[in-house]
Amino acid sequence: MTSRASPFARAGLALPQKPRRAGGLRGLIEQAGVALACLLAWHLLVAWQWVPSSGVSAPGPALARWGELLLTSAYWQVLGHTLGGWFIGMAISVLVAVPLGVAIGLSRFLSDSTRFTIDFLRTVPPVALLPVVLLLLGPTLTMKVTLIVVGTLWPMLIQSIYAASQIDPVLRDAAQSFRLSRSHRIRFLLLPSVAPFVATGLRIAATVSLLLSVTGEYIGGAPGLGAALGSAELAGNLPEMYAYILTAATLGVAINIGFIVLQRQLLWWHPSVRIAPRG
Amino acid sequence: MNTLQAILPTSAAAADVVFRVEGLMHQYGSSADARRILDGVEFEVRRGAFVCIVGPSGTGKSTLLRCLSGLQTPTGGQIIFNGARVTEPPQGLALVFQDYSRSLMPWLTVLDNVTLPLRAGSLTRRQRDEQGMAALQEVGLANAVSQYPWQLSGGMQQRVAIARALAYRPAAVLMDEPFASVDAQTRADLEDLMLSVRKHLGISVLLVTHDIDEAVYLSDQVCVLSGSPAKVAAIIDVNLGSERGQITTKATREFADLRTQVYQMIRRPAAVKS
Amino acid sequence: MVAPFGPHRPTRLSRRIRAVFVEAWLPIVLVALWWVLSARFPSTYSPPLQEILRLFRELWLFEHARTDLLPSVVNLVLGYTLALAAGVGLGTWLGLSPRLSRVLWPTLEFVRAIPGVAILPVFIILLGVGPTMKVTLIAVGAFWPILLNTIDGVRSVEPTLRDVAASFRIPLKHRLLHIVLPAASPQIFSGARISLSVAVILIVVSEMVGANGGIGYFVRSAERSFAIPEMWSGIIVLGLLGYVLNTLFRLLEARVLAWHHGMTTRTQRDGR
To answer: Which single residue of A65, C93, C141, C254 could bond A239 by disulfide (Cβ 3.0 to 4.6 Å)?
Structure first.
């Protein structure tokens, strides 16, 4: 039995532990029950006019409209636009932030030099730059991608820098004493050590990216979920509006789960995935 | 007079038995798959005695301890502490855990850690701190009062945990393999500490361990747990006198004999089932 | 105020000066670069930094700070505080009820995933564009990260500590105050930080869409009317706002979680 709690839990690396299902099926039914109860409450709130029906659609029509939309190609195109921006933005962020961040993290001088700059720039809300980007690039994919990169670059950079500083000194010593070549050190020491931090950063960046993509679409008008939401709002089509809201939420949940699964698969060997951080 | 010694609670009904365990049984799960861990464990701890429960890892010592401390309800049998049946953690019982680093609050100073259990009582802040200081003095940590647990070494952290138990002024202290996570040197020091504390304050101690040497060195009685499911294989009286030393006592013939005796009891095949 | 368990500070003056230099040269160089390049190659969308800073001084010190920035900050703080109180309170309760939180978890995760931006239209329809809407939107949006992180933090209190509390018969009030909340505080702070950036985003977005004043509205309307230097000055203000809030947050965290920093540095130093 280890005498310390997993350092990964403390480093905030551990994958979120979903509450364990007690008695599998029964737990699942209970959870579904809660979801249905919420839907029911929603329905009643609207039906009894406790919430103005000018602003809130009843779940029935919203779900029905969602069902209809699922069968149209326009819906999937819209989804594709949002996910496209999301993906490209994240990819650019990762490709830039990870190598840069690791390089910075490995050098004391560079980390000290860039600390203030990164600290400051990461606190600028990306939405603040939305007007600028809109002016420069108009309601386009590029505009969305720029917004996403601005929003996700900093967290990923920070995570990568942090990752580089967290390389287990024992492993580093071992690599040195075995006189591993530089490329081997990168491949067998650096990358695997850095991977879990990058993975966590990715997971967080993924949620932020989605948010920024939708924001850019809603306010900026670039094609995608946010824009579809906006036009439904303008047309006063409440059920459709809510169908898109539900879509956005589902997308967010799916992305989060997807990344957790991916992290478990790729990093199955890493203690943060292997060892449950809490007893 | 030592401030910790003055107020040991004694229950009128309990006379001089602090713990009585009768027919203790515990199993996990129900029906056919049930894993029986304890099967009819019975023993007694006299007031003021130092009893060690010894058995190899995996025999269910932890389960036994959790049942004794009221943290777990056994599936059968009963435990009487200070004359009352144990259904939940009883008044007057203090626990010392194996994993000291996890049992101390890292956001509290050493003194605050030690006095935390006293907050629920009617003592003033001043009185609590005095009691805590006395306990820390008893374990030799009077200088570490305003430090944080994680600033201390493993042995010192365990001392803090022991001080916390002492400050509580319990009728008995229950210890769960308390010295398993420290190095041999520190273990020897802590063992002697427990002996001196017991001598000084006269409290009853029930210590669970897998270390036979430790069990024999410390106790008045060794309770050997063996078999699977576990039962009490033997209760061996230890007559090594009240003055014990790491080198002197462990070199005596009696010590070696007792050691062998305990070892044999543990190793006896499960044919001890009755 | 320096956190008592922070890293060892350089004691010699020369070392301190050097440390300041190392951290300062890059930002200074970047700003200088911006200044020079924007003066040399001014464009419609990138006016000279000099002009931006001039406008900044004119507008934001302190006239517009009062009329635009202050309301935004007030709404932000109000909404955030509500979210904090509700999130920690509810989160603690749910965290202590494992059965309940397990059953509610999927629904909570789903509702949390609704992007604040997507429900903005709903809020506008229901509550208009005034401060009520903004505060409510922020409160609702910032609530979720705190709630979920608090639940997680409370649930993951070291089991040994729970045993300690039970074995010493520590009553609920003390357990919450001295064990559960401190143990969960690193996680709670983590959630609170995420909530802070959500709150900032929401105040800006809600003001950009509405027409009711605030810093977001200022930037958007400057953009719309092509008052580019003014727009940039507003963006700088937003950047500063984000930075100040974050720094305040970090200072508070360093103070409250000093024990945590001390403990983890020690663990890292000593290895596993």
So the answer is: A65
Domain count, chain C: 1
Q: Which residues of B touch A4 (CB under 8 A)?
A: 101-102
Read off the pLDDT of each residue in C219-229 and give the average, rounded to a whole number. 86
Could you give the domains of chain A?
59-266 (1.10.3720.10)
Asked if residue C110 has a cis previous peptide bond (ω within 30° of 0), the answer is no
Query: For B107-127, how does the pLDDT look when each residue is reduced to its tens digit (9 = 90+)?
Result: 999 999 999 999 988 889 999
DSSP A15: P
Where in the sequence is the domain holding C228, given as residue range(s)? 49-271
Token digits of residue C187: 């996680």
Tell me which residue of C4, C180, C168 sits closest to B147, measured CA to CA: C4
- How far apart (Å, rounded) are the C-alpha atoms in residues C257 and C254? 5
Q: What angle do CA A99, A104, A110 make, to 5 degrees?
A: 155
Name which of A117, A245, A256 is nearest C114 (Cβ-Cβ).
A245
Which two structure tokens, joined as six digits, stand for B168? 């509580």
pLDDT of res. B190 = 93
Per-chain mean pLDDT for chain C: 86
pLDDT tens string C35-84 = 888 888 878 778 888 888 888 888 887 787 788 888 899 999 999 999 99
Cβ–Cβ < 8 Å for C138, C83: yes
**Interface contact flag, B102 A5, Cβ < 8 Å:** yes
Residues A5-27: pLDDT tens digits?
Answer: 444 444 445 555 554 545 578 88
pTM (2 d.p.): 0.83
Domain membership flag for residue C42: no
Q: Is there a contact between C102 and A12 if contact means CB atoms under 8 Å apart?
A: no
Q: Is C17 part of any domain? A: no
- By Cβ distance, the residue of A22, A52, A109 closest to C22 is A109
Chains that touch C (3 or more CB pairs under 8 A): A, B
The residue ranges of chain A whose pLDDT is under 70 are: 1-23, 270-279
Query: Does residue C171 form part of some domain?
Result: yes
Positive or negative torsion for Cα A176, A179, A181, A183: negative
How far apart, in whole angstroms, are the C-alpha atoms of residue B113 and residue B146? 10
Compute the distance between CA of residue B61 and CA of residue B77 in angstroms, rounded to an integer. Answer: 16
C186 → chain B, closest CA residue = B107
Tokens of B182: 């420290």
CATH of the domain at C254: 1.10.3720.10
